Amino acid sequence: MKNIKYLLISCCAFVSACDDFLVENPQTSVMKDGVYNSLSSAEAVLNGCYSTMEAYDGYAFNYFHVLNVTSGMGVSLKSNDVNLTTMNILPSNVNMTNTYTAMYKTIMVANDIIDGMKSSAIEDGVDKNRIQGEAYFIRAVTYFNLVRLFGKVSLITEPVTNYAEAQKPREEVEKVYTQILFDLDKAWSLLPEKADKVDGRPYKYAAKAVRAKVYLTLAGNMTEAETDYWQKCYDDAFDVYHNGGYELVHPYSKLFGSENKNNAESVFEIQFSSAVNSGRLTETTFPVGHDLMSNIPTQGKSWGKTRPLQRAFDQFEAGDPRREAAFVYQSYNNIYESGNKKKVMLYPSVKGDGNGTYKQGDSEYPAWKKYYDTSMTAEASSANFVYMRFADVVLILAEAANELTEHQSETVEYLNEILTRAADANGNGMRDADETVPADVDASMSQEDLREKIFRERLKEFTGECDEWYTIRRRGETYLRKIMQEHNDKINQLYGNSELPKFVYKYSITDDNVKKNMLMPFPQDEITRNENISQEEQNFGY
What we know:
- By secondary structure, the chain is mostly helical.
- 45% of the residues lie in helices and 6% in strands.
- The protein is globular and about 70 Å long.
């Protein structure tokens, strides 16, 4: 008999031991009604739900690592990640499986909150609604991730109290999206206005911003004549743009790092604090001994394992301030070394110039700079994971406008807001005479050219933010193939016919491999565990 997958455990376990979801024998909830009749205890369970998102297998490391290195714009400097990095992911891959499991842990706590708050005696309507609204929002966001990554997934929307309820089949993608939209509608109706929000938590317009992105994803590569999703996407993004209370932060560099989190551009962030948990984004993106983290007394564990590909760096023009804000490149000084070993060379430095130390991996790639944390201690970082920011809304609005005949003339205006902010290196809110890169676009561009420009600007604007995996696949296999080919062309340019160095790979670009990589493999562990999911239901190509 297969193991039971999900169980309703005591609410105190939700708060203090959110990893104890996959166990063999069911337990029952302890005084569940009492928990949700107290504002403080209901809030504690909600905090426990966020804790599942902040866990190592969630946004603290695995979600970030898996999506970046399999996106087509990233690489891992770990020998055991070759299958991830080369887009030959195995259904048994531990990182991918743990990411999947972590999302269901979040869903199960959200389900319990939603169910428990239905009969809650909490009298404060604002806080009662907010707790429910946040749970609906979290569940929607999590299923949105799952359905985009894995396609058909088990749809669990009630607390699981027995073995049979744990054995859910994979539901059709359309049904999962219906649930996501339902949850976002509920979140919109329950979440507070900006003035009443809790710091670091989503408010009402976050639900509509995510819903705009859901409609954008559903529109896919269809035209205006084929779908009304473009209009729904435009309407939601337009409302958030004008009424949501968000704004673009100037300059672009002020968006990132622990000191800039939860800024005016933030729609939703996963909160990390080195004082209470171990956010790993700084460790996994920075090369060892970088002087931005000079307060760390010892070298610690593995650093800089999740890297951008050369193509991710080269997509930026020289002089684009976003390149400076997004990457550590060329070289840096290792604070743990001295003499010639102190200077470590990074891409795009040229080997053999005798000006520093070349290490396998380091010298082949740049590194992401967005998750710097000058207050980091040991491995724990306070740099947040930004799930969505207002620039995303602006680009969604530009893309939807470009697909809608009556709004096409607005496309350039919205796109130029992103480009002008990108060029505004001094942060005065405008493009000065010497701020020419990246250049604005003009109305002479065709719809097709604007579509391609928006695609490219998304990849630049959100490099290293886990949006690339979705953006590259959202409009079909043609886009994924294009990115894979551009990477291979870059590797050919850099290395020619020479043997590729360690941690440098090419993609297989057969029709089947491109189609396969539109989704992750469905976790083998889940197929083995769940009696209502068979091996024949595995995603294409795995």
